[in-house]
Amino acid sequence: MFRLAIFAGRMRTVVAVTRRGWPLSPSERMAATPCCQSRRHYGSPAAAEPFLSGSSGVYVEEMYNSWLQNPASVHKSWDVFFRNTDQGAPPGAAYQAPPGIRTAVSTVSAPITAAPQFDTENMLSTKVIDDHLAVQAIIRSYQVRGHFKAQLDPLNISRTSILTDHVDALLQTYKYHTIGRYYELEEPDLDRVFQLPPTTYIGGEEKSLTLREIINRLETIYCHHIGVEYMFINNLEQCDWIKKRFETPGVSALTKEEKRRLMTRVLRSTRFEEFLAKKWSSEKRFGLEGCEVLVPAMKTVIDVSSSYGVESIIFGMPHRGRLDVLANVCRKPLEQIFCQFDSKLEAADEGSGDVKYHLGMSHERINRSTNKNIRLAVVANPSHLEAVDPVVQGKTKAEQYYRGDTEGKKVMSMLIHGDAAFSGQGIVYETFHLSDLPAYTTHGTIHIVVNNQIGFTTDPRFSRSSAYCTDVARVVNAPIFHVNADDPEAVMHVCKVAAEWRAEWGKDVVVDLVCYRRNGHNEIDEPMFTQPLMYKKIKQTPNVFKKYSDQLIGEGVITQQEYEEEVAKYDKICEEAYADAKKETAIQNRQWLDSPWTGFFEGLDTMKLLPTGIDEETLKHIGNVFSKEPSEEFTLHGGQKRILKARKEMIDNREADWALGEAFTFGSLLKAGIHVRLSGQDVQRGTFSHRHHVLHDQKRDRETYTPLNHLYPDQAEYVVCNSSLSEYGVLGFEVGYSITNPNALVIWEGQFGDFANTAQCIIDQFISSGQTKWIRQSNLVMLLPHGYEGMGPEHSSARLERYLQMSSDDPDYFPPMDENFEIQQLYDINWFVCNTTTPANFFHVMRRQITLPFRKPLVMMTPKSLLRHPDAKSSFDDMIEGTRFQRIIPDTGTASENPEEVKRILFCSGKIYYDLLKERAKKELDSKIAITRVEQLTPFPFDLILAELQKYPQAQISWVQEEHKNGGSWSYVQPRFNTVIKKQGADRFVKYVGRHASASTATGNKQAHIMEHAQLLKKAVTLK
């Protein structure tokens, strides 16, 4: 009995390891495998009976087959067992124990005085176990590494494999290297039948196959035109899901009708490019030649996604193939595309426009495969590759939010990438890492890489260090499907699986279309300069349409006549559109909007400023809720209790600090049904611990309370979310979020304003110029903490000068002084740049973002020390009805009472005002020096500055700033002051007061900072 128990335990080990799907280590195998005299001798049925099902059944089946050939090849007890079973006895009755075993069973309680003696005839054969484990190892090796051997290159001149020759040889001879030794199968073993493990679906309904057939099927699945990377995913259920969709026999087969439709889609893609090349041979169009299969690939994703209930898809893509996608995926009218090639046509509406392969669009149409409406939007983007990725994600997230699509079942995103950019641009990594964050997830994006196997002129060996350009996707466990782009049916299969994956799991997936670029980087570029061998091969390679149509004609799916009719039919469509395009007299830029705000501008008076003040009762209510502790069960931090108490005292005194002014802004908009979203690093608490919009229970994990979401029962939602440590990706995301709905306030806050330069691409390409290029309005707010506090060069300056430099107002032009002066300026400018000094003014300018009859971005220099400055507070009187945003705040002290006596007027912006105020009082010059704050720098308040200069006709004019001379506002305001002085007709000039020019934004030495600051203050208030 003891011997049987030991054997049974070892049998369990063998079965368990077999089921887990990988080979045993030598030590495991020694522990699991008994010694044996013959490879055909096994233990008794009593020991094996509990394991006759499942993976261990393979051993019993082998023994049974051996018994059929020679009953003497098995132990006598097994001989009896099989004879009884053949005669109909059930397993429990078929077994007859030998007398020795019966005795052992009956005396189980007898003491054991000697070590057990193992009967080698009862032991499993090591060779048999090794053979079966080797087969499992082969199956697994194909699942893990088969993609390295796949025939992915349509040109067949390079291999994507980076395996060494040694490992590559192992795959070809069916050897699998693991844990320091080989499992080998000889040539005669190829025709042996092996039980298939539950870790594969290659058998379909068949439970066993010959090794030759196993390998043939694995080769076809994993090493033909599809390379599947998925075994790195740490979710067994997801891995199993993928296996089933690639390994199940016949799973990728297309019907004749599906093949015909696929050919038609490839035809449209190919002939469209050929038509453009014929009509505009010298124009850049960044055509799709070499990857024409992209169009049917995208349409397959759309068809499958639509069948799963998706109603809207947002695309982001580079310039290559964009016109083809617009024409044949989104079905933008061809004549509108052809118009873009006419250089004589000018825009009929606003904006300077952009090159045709940067433009976006939005269109709703019927999907013919599902007969459902689907909305398709291509987001406009610049040449900065991959910069559009987070913008698309933000737009998708916003659309999901407004539709109440909490699981991403109705709205999804699809991103098209280039291979070199996918691996080379860090924004790709940043975007992937937003994919599962609660406040940023879009519940799965389908990424399609148009893999040219080359950058502009750079070989992949010199452009990336990873095996594949898609390796970055592995960090989020996204499956990666590599596919030969010259096999349209294989492409359709992987795209179908990709769409199903996204629908099933709500996670990202990558389709890598391995293709080539038939022309150079653009149609004018000469690729033979740098890739002569590749392009000699390309010239000899027929396009995919020729290959596939010949294949279908050969298969009898279509006839030669049908083929020619289809070609002629689409060519006629293009010719008719070309004729219609010639009739156009101007380009309609609004036809290229990717985010049309239907109905928003209707009935709005674009020359009317609405009030921004609110009633005092609302202020008090918001303040009381914002300063109230949560329920008694909620354990609040002691420091936060003191903060809430101080807030309540301010409410009772009818005043607000910066945090309360911000809360009044958000709360009043939420009351009006305006959705507010604040995003960025540590925004919930605030980098400077002033905000505390999310309170955390000190005893219960993840128990939080957001006061501003508990103001009114029917209020809009306030979303305040700490972001990943990213500026580029997150700011791009918020841009996309902001362009989706004009009736929302979307805010991104830099942890320090200095850090925004990491996102400069988004600022330059999407925010400052988006409306001019793409008629894309946005009311995105950028909060950039700014101010010199002696904290060093990386924590002082938000680079105010950069935003002012990108402002579009003319420094030499003084606008007409009429009743619409202020709003006309706001309408004409590309964005607003402000540096407010009071909570009330911050309150008004933020609310103005929503009350304006149009939308513009706002760049806000926010304070650091002023967050708690005792003088930086506002009375309720400055926020109630009848009050408004002050573009400048004039001096209201002694100097303003006797302006003729004023010797100097100091203009400034930001926190330097409070330092000047203190220094002036210290020198007792309140009546001699006036201080005026310029709160809105752009558009420049020409009219109000003129009024100030006229008020103080004898005063010297100085611009005071704490930034260096080559930074801050000076270079922006100086020419505009000169324009105002010219308008006044006076003989005056504006003097600079501040730090000297410097390459660094600030000194890193605290004492040097204090000395510099003291000198500029002294200079500002010293009268000569």
UniProtKB/TrEMBL annotation:
Signal peptide: none
Subcellular localization: Mitochondrion; Nucleus
Keyword presence, Methyltransferase: no
Keywords, sorted A to Z: Calcium, Glycolysis, Isopeptide bond, Magnesium, Metal-binding, Mitochondrion, Nucleus, Oxidoreductase, Thiamine pyrophosphate, Transit peptide, Ubl conjugation
Domain of life assignment: Eukaryota
Matching InterPro entries: 2-oxogl_dehyd_N (IPR032106), 2oxoglutarate_DH_E1 (IPR011603), DH_E1 (IPR001017), KGD_C_sf (IPR042179), ODO-1/KGD_C (IPR031717), THDP-binding (IPR029061), Transketolase-like_Pyr-bd (IPR005475)
Domain Transketolase-like pyrimidine-binding: 656-869
Gene Ontology CC annotations of this record: mitochondrion; nucleus; oxoglutarate dehydrogenase complex
Pfam family, one: E1_dh
Biological process, per Gene Ontology: glycolytic process; tricarboxylic acid cycle
Gene Ontology MF terms in the entry: metal ion binding; oxoglutarate dehydrogenase (succinyl-transferring) activity; thiamine pyrophosphate binding
Obligatory cofactor(s): thiamine diphosphate; Mg(2+)
EC number(s) from the headed UniProt entry: 1.2.4.2
Similarity remark: Belongs to the alpha-ketoglutarate dehydrogenase family.
Protein's job: The 2-oxoglutarate dehydrogenase complex catalyzes the overall conversion of 2-oxoglutarate to succinyl-CoA and CO(2). It contains multiple copies of three enzymatic components: 2-oxoglutarate dehydrogenase (E1), dihydrolipoamide succinyltransferase (E2) and lipoamide dehydrogenase (E3).
NCBIfam families found in the cross-reference section: 2oxo_dh_E1 (TIGR00239), PRK09404.1 (NF006914), PRK12270.1 (NF008907)
Name the UniProt record assigns to this protein: 2-oxoglutarate dehydrogenase complex component E1
